[in-house]
Amino acid sequence: MYAIRRFEETLLDMFSAGLLVGTTHTCIGQEANAVGLIDHLEPERDVIFSNHRCHGHYLAFTGDQVGLLAEVMGRETGVCGGKGGSQHLCAPNFYTNGVQGSIVPVATGIALAERERGAGAVTTVFLGDGTLGQGTVYECLNMAALWRLPLLFVVEDNRYAQTTPRELAVAGSVPARAEAFGIHAEALDTTDVEEVHAAAGRAVARVRETRAPALLVLGTYRLSPHSKGDDVRDPAEIEAWRARDPLAVAGARIGPEERAAIERRCEDALADAVAAAQAAPVAGAVAA
Amino acid sequence: MRTVTCAQALNAALHELFAERDDVYLLGEDVLDPYGGAFKISRGLSERYPERVVTTPISEASLVGVAAGMALRGYRPVLEIMFGDFITLAFDQIVNGVSKFREMYDDRVTLPLVVRTPMGGRRGYGPTHSQSLEKLLIGVPNITVAATSECHDLGAMMRDAVLSDDPVFLIENKVMYGRPNRRPRDGHLDGFRVDETAGPFPALIFSAGEGAEPAATIVTYGGMLPIVLDAATELIVEEELFCEVVCLGRLLPLDLGPVLESVARTGALVTAEEGPLTGGVGAEIAARMQELAWGDLRRPVRRVAAEDGIIPAAPGLEDARLPGARDVADAVLALVGAPA
User: Per CATH, is B6-177 categorized as 3.30.70.2190?
Assistant: First the structure.
């Protein structure tokens, strides 16, 4: 979680310093979800389809800091050669795309393919509370249930779709949406990685064993802006959530020395990644 | 010789491909036997290959994405969109997914999927079941848009589509389905000499043959082909005026090679399509031809298309809206009759 946090803080710093162009969407404050869930997946057979807020998922699944940083920096060595940028990533068994709702049908097709292949893979698709406004989500819940697809829908509910609070965009119950299709659903509201890990373990195991879809709602909070400087939330509200920062919650469980050692290790790896990405040739640069 | 309809030819091609490869899947609405799809193109497949034919809910906004997901994972899905009109629901998946994956993922993936769909009117189905919307697809990069006609080798076209490693939109035609798949014999059909370009989704070039001096080129595709051939025959009989007809098999990427060669002989070009005029396939062809063949064109390019507007249900109103053989012939006469 610390590695993801520092990676994204570094991205925001680079934007502020004018070293990056374009856009990015960080998951600062939501790291427990990526770490708690993806620990249960097997990168050599399971598949993830993620969304615009995908860095945490990518790093937890692949560990590839250099490839992601180089991609966001528009370098030839980026995981997609600089063509995708922050929200369009592809690595073995890992895909992201930048349109809400657009990713759910593709994940459904992936799960259908993996059902046919029969290797026991679990496909996970990451949605946000904002994605629940898209009709394709409900088309795909329906098909996943009808076709018994090994597909785990994960709704990271961070209470805001960009600037729109959930109360203005999401009616009714999120788990009940899945249950209406006969899909098992579990919801929790925590930034404690241990709690996420336990619930995600149940959800992944259920999909793997029953070969049927499930939905997991992870209530969370984004401490960072939607993208870079576009935050209109009450600063007092954000400040109150800092007490539940997943790093603070997890950090309280370990001693200061262990924590310092983890942080030092992460800082060293990040510094190496930054140096490697900065040294890589710029994609599309005309040779002098 | 037994007459094979276009629908039967397409169905037979799918049966062959299913028999040859177990990575080919069919998805679509109402595709199960005994119904076998609204136009019977999938008939018999679900009985023989029940595990590889997936009947779907009415979910066009998702289905192209579902097919894309299968294709990303190495399968070769063939998706039927029951009426071409419904493809509008799938445009996010087409534009933000299918068109993008291979290039934006830096060629780390292939996308071998086929979307088959019937376009076209002349069946009285009315405004939302009669359109020719392929012009909306030719503005989407990184996809192939192929157009079948009753004179193409439909089995070969289906094979080209299914075996492509990139997404192919196979535009079929509702009137064509019930008509015989009329192939040239010894390079001739209906009194025309017929040449065929090499490679997948070929163009067919109809000419009058030896001795006839062609006055104009007509480029067309799909369900307009028999109408254009009727017009060309009418012009020979009534005006002793010979045209060359190029029937494109692929609208995107657009290969105008045979049109350029023909226009080098005729100096005059008419485009003929069933969809509405504005922003149509003919507009793209005309723009490219003035870039590529300004020196050969002796007259402005003339477009024949439907009037912009809905396709009415009543047969008389529908006929008036869609281009017919008379419209094509009149366009040629207006062009060739104009001062050079």
Answer: no
